[in-house]
From TrEMBL:
Its main location: membrane. The lineage of its organism: Eukaryota, Metazoa, Chordata, Craniata, Vertebrata. It is found in: Cell membrane. It is a multi-pass membrane protein. The keyword Disulfide bond applies. It comes from Sus scrofa (Pig). This is Adhesion G protein-coupled receptor E1.
Length: 619
C-alpha cells in the first residue's frame, strides 16, 4: 500500500499557526512556538484543535543583528576578555530556550528564580563595559517578557500568579472571559510598584487567543542601568546641564496582544522612589528604548502625572520597561566644564585675534621672537576655533575623523612652536652680550616654519597610517583612547614639556648669573623681577598646564578636570597677557592708538623676553 502525505496535499490541514507532521498512515498537528491549543490534537476530532497565539520571542528573535549577541553564539570562539560576558548572555538565553522548547506549561516561578540568579550575577557586582551592560540588560528584559508570555499558554482559570524573589517580582493575570466593562481596570503590584491597565486597552491589544497582563519589578538593576544611559532626542541640551540620578526600580508592563503601543487609554505606573524626592528635583518617566546596538533611556511615550516624596506616577501609551530619573536644578560637572570651556575659549579667541593683529601691525616689536609668537597664536587660534565649532560634529564619521586629524595637527603645531620659542629664548638669554643674536646668526623664519609646521605634520601622517580608525569618537571629534592611540598626541606633548622645562630652568640659571654683570640701569630689581616673572609664565604657557589632563584619575579627578579646563581654555588669554599687556612697547603702541599721539622721539632702554632691539648693542 502507498502512504499518502496529507500534509503536502493540504497546507491548511492543521489550521493557522500550526505545523503538520506526516506519520505512517496518519498525520499529527502541533502549534508553532508562541501558540497554544485548548484541545490536544486528536484524529477523531481534528476540528477541536485550534492554535491561538501568545506571541513571544525565542533566542533567534532577540536582537538578531547585534554584534555582541553574535559574539556569544554557540560554536563561536570567544576571546578571553568576553568569557564572563558570554557566560551571562548564554545563561539568560538558556532560560528563554527552555521556555521556547517546552511542550508543557512553562513554570513562571522556575523561570523567575533562574532570571533572579542572572540578575544577581550581572547587576550586583558588575565589571562590564557600558555597551556590554546595555546589551545584557536588553536581552534580559526581552527574555523575561517572552518567558512570562509563554507562561500564559497554560490553560487555567482566571487566576493571578504572584512570584516573589530577592531580585525579581512578577504578578500575572489571565483574562479568560474577557472584560465585562470598558471602564474596568486591572491592578497589578510587584515590590511596592504598581500598574493599572484598562479593560479597553487589553481589548485594543488584539490578543488572538488567551488574554493576559503581567507586571514585573527588578531589584538592583537600576544601580547599573542608570542615568548614564539617558538620552533625550527632543531636548538633548535641556537635560545635559542637569544633574540626573536613577530613583526607582526598573519595571516592565507585559501584555499578550500583538499591539504594544499607541493605546487610546494610557497605562498608569506608580513607582516607589528609592530616595525621597526633594523640592528642587523634577522626576522624568523614562522607557528603555532598544535598537540593534543596545538600548537607552528616553522620555518618549511617557509623561509624569504626579510626584510625591515617596512615589512617582507615570502615564504611558505603551507597554514598556520603565524607570524614574530625577533631574535636579544643580548643574552637572560635565555641563559646568562645557560652559567654562566654551566661555574661556571664546575669550581666548578674542585675545588671540588681538595678539595676532598686534604682532602684525606693531613695528616697534617686530623681530624673530614676535614672529614665533605670531605663528603660535595663529595655530592656537585655529585649533580653538575648530574645537569650538567642530568637536561635537560626530554625526558624520568621515567628517569627524577629518576634524580630529586637523585638531591633532594644530594642537601639536602649538607645542612645536612652543618648543621653538623655548629654544630661541634659551639662545637669546645665553648670548645676552649680543642682543641682536638672531640677526647676526642669520636664523631664517623659513627654517623655523619647517620645524614648527613640518614635524607635527609628520607625527600626524605616521599616526594616521598606523591606525586610521583612531580619529573620531562616539561623543566628540578627537583622538580615540583605544589601543593607546591618544599617545600619538600625549607622547610628543610630554616630551616637549620635559624639554621646555629643562631649557627654561637652564635659562633662569643663566639669567641669575648674567643679570649681575649687566649695567645698573638694566639690572635693577624691577627688571629682574619682570624677567623672572616672564620666564616662569613662559614655562606655564609652554604646556605645563597640559600635565593636569594626565592626572584626571582617582579622587582628585574632578579638581584636575576643572583646573585643566580653566587653564587650557584661557591659554590664549595668558599669551595675550604675557606677550602684549606686560610688554612695555606694546602698551605704548596701544596707548598711541587710543589717544592718537605719535611715537615719542626717545625710548627707555630695557630688556624684554618678548622683544629684542634691532640695533646691535653690547652690555
Amino acid at each position: 500500500c502507498l502512504d499518502v502525505d496529507e500534509c503536502s496535499s493540504n497546507s491548511t490541514l492543521c489550521g493557522p499557526s500550526s505545523v503538520c507532521t506526516n506519520l505512517p498512515g496518519k498525520y499529527s498537528c502541533s502549534c508553532l512556538p508562541g501558540f497554544f491549543s485548548p484541545a490536544v490534537w486528536s484524529p477523531e476530532k481534528p476540528e477541536a484543535f485550534k492554535c491561538t497565539g501568545v506571541p513571544f520571542k525565542c533566542k533567534e528573535d532577540v536582537m538578531p543583528n547585534n554584534e555582541w549577541v553574535q559574539l556569544c553564539q554557540d560554536g563561536a570562539a570567544v576571546k578571553p576578555k568576553y568569557v564572563s560576558f558570554c557566560a551571562v548572555m548564554n545563561a539568560t538565553f538558556s532560560v528563554l530556550d527552555d521556555a521556547c522548547k517546552k511542550t508543557t506549561a512553562v513554570s513562571l516561578k522556575n523561570t523567575a528564580e533562574r532570571f533572579a540568579s542572572v540578575i544577581e550575577k550581572t547587576f550586583t557586582r558588575s565589571s562590564f563595559t557600558k555597551e556590554e551592560i546595555s546589551t545584557l540588560a536588553t536581552v534580559l528584559l526581552k527574555s523575561v517578557e517572552s518567558t512570562t508570555l509563554a507562561s500564559f499558554l497554560k490553560p487555567s482559570a482566571n487566576v493571578s500568579q504572584t512570584i516573589q524573589t530577592e531580585y525579581l517580582d512578577i504578578e500575572s493575570k489571565v483574562i479568560n472571559k474577557g472584560c465585562t466593562e470598558e471602564d474596568e481596570t486591572f491592578n497589578l503590584k510587584a515590590k511596592g510598584d504598581k500598574m493599572k491597565i484598562w479593560c479597553s486597552t487589553i481589548k485594543e491589544s488584539e490578543s488572538t487567543g488567551i488574554s493576559g497582563v503581567a507586571f514585573v519589578s527588578f531589584e538592583h538593576m537600576e544601580s547599573v542601568l542608570d542615568e548614564r544611559f539617558f538620552q533625550d532626542p527632543q531636548t538633548p541640551w535641556a537635560n545635559s546641564k542637569r544633574k540626573l540620578k536613577m530613583n526607582s526600580r526598573i519595571v516592565s508592563g507585559i501584555i499578550t496582544g500583538e499591539k504594544k503601543e499607541g493605546f487610546s487609554k494610557p497605562v498608569i505606573y506608580t513607582l516607589e522612589n528609592i530616595q525621597p524626592k526633594q523640592n528642587f528635583e523634577s522626576p522624568i518617566c523614562v522607557s528603555w528604548n532598544t535598537d540593534g546596538k543596545g538600548g537607552r533611556w528616553t522620555p518618549s511615550g511617557c509623561v509624569t502625572l504626579e510626584a510625591s516624596e515617596t512615589h512617582t506616577v507615570c502615564s504611558c501609551n505603551q507597554m514598556v520597561n520603565l524607570a524614574v530619573i530625577m533631574a535636579s536644578g544643580e548643574l552637572t560637572m560635565e555641563f559646568a566644564l562645557f560652559v567654562i570651556s566654551h566661555v574661556g575659549t571664546i575669550f581666548s579667541l578674542v585675545c588671540l585675534a588681538v595678539a595676532i593683529i598686534t604682532f602684525l601691525l606693531c613695528r616697534t616689536i617686530r623681530n624673530h621672537n614676535t614672529y614665533i609668537h605670531l605663528h603660535l597664536c595663529v595655530c592656537l587660534f585655529l585649533a580653538n576655533l575648530l574645537f569650538l565649532t567642530g568637536a561635537d560634529k560626530t554625526h558624520h564619521q568621515i567628517g569627524c575623523a577629518i576634524i580630529a586629524g586637523f585638531l591633532h595637527y594644530l594642537f601639536l603645531a602649538c607645542f612645536f612652536w612652543m618648543l621653538v620659542e623655548a629654544v630661541m629664548l634659551f639662545l637669546m638669554v645665553r648670548n645676552l652680550k649680543v642682543v641682536n643674536y638672531f640677526s647676526s646668526h642669520n636664523i631664517k623664519m623659513l627654517h623655523l616654519c619647517a620645524f614648527g609646521y613640518g614635524l607635527p605634520g609628520l607625527v600626524v601622517f605616521v599616526a594616521a597610517n598606523i591606525h586610521p580608525q583612531g580619529y573620531g569618537m562616539y561623543n566628540r571629534c578627537w583622538l580615540n583612547t583605544e589601543k593607546g592611540f591618544i599617545w600619538s598626541f600625549l607622547g610628543p606633548v610630554c616630551t616637549i614639556i620635559v624639554v621646555n622645562s629643562i631649557l627654561l630652568t637652564w635659562t633662569l640659571g643663566i639669567l641669575r648669573q648674567k643679570l649681575s654683570s649687566l649695567n645698573d640701569e638694566v639690572s635693577t630689581l624691577k627688571d629682574t623681577r619682570l624677567l623672572t616673572f616672564k620666564a616662569f609664565a613662559q614655562i606655564f604657557i609652554l604646556g605645563c598646564s597640559w600635565v593636569l589632563g594626565i592626572f584626571q584619575i582617582g579622587p582628585i579627578a574632578g579638581i584636575m578636570a576643572y583646573l585643566f579646563t580653566v587653564i587650557n581654555s584661557l591659554q590664549g588669554a595668558f599669551i595675550f597677557l604675557i606677550h602684549c599687556l606686560l610688554n612695555r612697547q606694546v602698551r605704548e603702541a596701544y596707548s598711541r592708538c587710543i589717544t592718537g599721539k605719535t611715537k615719542p622721539g626717545s625710548q627707555t632702554s630695557g630688556i624684554s623676553l618678548s622683544s629684542v632691539p634691532s640695533a646691535s648693542k653690547t652690555v
